[in-house]
Amino acid sequence: MKVEGEELDSPVVSFAALSSLLGSAARLARDLSRDLQLQRLLRVFLKLPAADRPVVLATLEREVAAREASVRAQDGVVGPVDLVASVYIRVFDAERDALGVTRDDVVRSSIDATVYKAGLPASLAAELEDSLAIALDSLPDDEAFAMADMYDDLLAVLAECER
What we know:
6 helices; mainly alpha; elongated
């Protein structure tokens, strides 16, 4: 930073640079503190288990990228926000349906995700597969195998429907 009539390494220049930096930091902090949705997002993110954070971030980044690409292309491929979307895989049975989610909700969500994946470019489909593999690795083996089998069955049904 240059102050008229002062050398670059003078205390006046250093003070002016520090003052400018602190002013910028104060404006940034003020703007961020006023964004209630950002505060909410940070609170939720901090509640996530640390091991889940990279996968959740990758999912959000992928979704935002798909939305931006669809808007740029004006292709309508990415529609409105899916209000029943899930980040975590849930295993439901008659005794554990505490969230009021029905088996049909789970099946419909799985079919939606499978159909969505089928329409993705190969690179994005591979990212989705990687995310699914990470999620399956966190489940007990019997549940992971059951979910993987269901996913494979859905892909087979989708392929049959496309014929």
